[in-house]
Specification:
Cytochrome Bc1 Complex, Chain D, domain 2; mainly alpha; 7% strand; two-stranded antiparallel ribbon
């Protein structure tokens, strides 16, 4: 906030407080002549408006409100860039509360960290804790049911682009992943892109090769698939080292229609799994790993 707008807000707030105080003072006073008149002279529907000052208890409630407002604005932020005498901030309070919870739960998570993931995911209480961690950190991309969405892989189907071992899952959560499917339109050409899309689709649906209208396309594209083997493997079953997904299992992050595959080949894909090492402690990541590993294990 600039100094101008900060000063503008401060002046505006102070003028409002001062205006309320002046109005209250003016309304609480009555001249001797006014005091003799019982009404203001206003009549509506036979009802006369009385000319009486505010009750004292009501008046002092207004005075107390003004005093409270002045004290609050002196102690807490509320006037432009002025931070208040106490230096309070909502972020600071949040950090204190997070630190308090961390101190309270640290011993429990430390005990969980001693148990291997293959065993830990079977604990009912760990499933509950892991579910809360998942909803807070993962559900916005992978869905509340962990079945993913377009562009975000399912965690329930047992298909793991970077590997489904506890170590691989923990690394993915901790360090994140950067998936890079390069655009191949220039290398394949328009017709070659369509041919390759049908060939890739046939890896999970071999019956496509029996269709007369696409068999020739698949045959033409087969030799060109060599440019994809470094990531997807010679047989298309994927390579967890480079993050190349399995093309034979019929599970697609960006859609398995021919049009979807063509778009992937033409434009490429840039997937981003953010690192959580600065968000979650190593012990919490261990519990979250166990929860996600359990999702796959239960499904299988």
């Amino acid at each position: 906030m600039s100094n101008f707008w900060s000063g503008y807000i401060i002046v505006l707030v102070l003028l409002n407080l001062l205006g309320c105080a002046v109005l209250l003072f003016w309304n609480s006073r009555m001249s001797a002549e006014e005091a003799k008149r019982r009404t203001t002279g206003h009549v509506f529907d036979g009802i006369e408006e009385l000319n009486e000052p505010l009750p004292r208890w009501w008046l002092w409630l207004f005075v107390g409100t003004l005093i409270f407002s002045a004290a609050y604005l002196a102690l807490y932020p509320g006037m432009g860039k002025y931070a208040g005498l106490l230096g309070w901030t909502s972020q600071g309070q949040w950090e204190e509360e997070v630190a308090f919870v961390e101190r309270q739960t640290a011993p429990l998570f430390a005990e969980y960290a001693k148990v291997p993931v293959e065993e830990l995911y079977q604990y009912p209480e760990v499933r509950e804790v892991g579910a809360r961690l998942y909803m807070q950190n993962c559900a916005m991309c992978h869905g509340s049911d962990a079945r993913g969405a377009r562009g975000y892989p399912s965690l329930m189907d047992g298909s793991w682009q970077w590997g489904g071992t506890p170590e691989a899952i923990k690394h993915t959560i901790t360090k994140g992943r950067d998936a890079n499917m390069p655009a191949l339109a220039a290398a394949l050409g328009e017709e070659g892109t369509t041919d390759m899309a049908w060939y890739v689709a046939s890896l999970s649906k071999p019956e496509l090769a029996e269709r007369e209208d696409v068999a020739e396309r698949i045959e033409r594209a087969a030799p060109l698939f060599a440019m994809c083997t470094a990531c997807h493997g010679a047989d298309g079953t994927g390579n967890t080292t480079f993050g190349g997904p399995d093309l034979t299992d019929g599970k697609w992050v960006y859609g398995g229609r021919i049009a979807d595959i063509e778009q992937t080949l033409r434009q490429g894909r840039m997937g981003k799994m953010p690192a959580h090492e600065s968000i979650l402690s190593a012990e919490r990541i261990h519990v979250l790993t166990a929860y996600i590993y359990g999702l796959r294990s239960d499904d299988e």
